[in-house]
C-alpha cells in the first residue's frame, strides 16, 4: 500500500496539469492584492475581509468545486487511454488498494490547490497592508481545517466520476456540468420534497458556503466538520466498489 501511495504522489509531482493550475492560482492570488494596491491605489485594506470575503467566500468556493475537476480528468481518467490503468490493475495489488492509493494521491493534489488562495492571498496582503484587522489564529486554523476537509470530500466525488469514465474530456465536462447545476436543481426540488430539502442542507456543496462564517454555534460547527468526513468515506467506498467491478481494457 505504501508503495502504491508513493507511486501516486510521484505521479502527482510530475503531473503538468497539476503544476499548471497551481502556478496559475498562485499568480492570481498574488496579483489581486497587488492590483488593489498599485492600480486601484487603495492604501488600507482589512486582512480579515481579504481572507474571508475574497479568498474564502469569493474565490475558493469555486476553486474547491471546479479546479480539481481538471486534475481528476488528467490524473485519473487519462490513465485508461494511455494503458497505465491496465498495467496497474495487473500488478497483483488488490483493486481496493489501487483505488485508495489513487484517491489519496488525487486528494492531496486537490487539497494543495484548494489551500492556495486562503494562504497566499492574505500572506501577500500583509506585505502591503500589514496585519491590519487580522483574523484570529483560531479562526484561521478552523477555516483552513474545514477547507482541507471539503477539498477531500469533493475529491472523493470527483475520483468516483474519474474512474467511471475512460476519457479525460468526458470526466472534466461531466464534473463541471454536474457541480454547476447540482445546487440549483437540488434547491428547486427541496422546495417540494422534504427529503430532498434535508439532503440539500447537508450537502457539501451547500455547506461549503458556510466555511467562512463567524460565531457559528456548536451544532452548526459540528455539522460543518462531520458532513465532509462522512462524504469522503461514503464516496471513497462507493468508488472502490465501482473500480473493483469495472472492466479495464
TrEMBL record:
Stated name of the protein: ABC transporter permease
Transmembrane parts of this sequence: 21-42, 62-82, 103-131, 143-165, 172-190, 224-243
Keywords assigned: Membrane, Transmembrane, Transmembrane helix
Organism, scientific name: Paenibacillus spongiae
Keyword Transmembrane helix attached: yes
Keyword Transferase: no
Pfam families in alphabetical order: ABC2_membrane_4
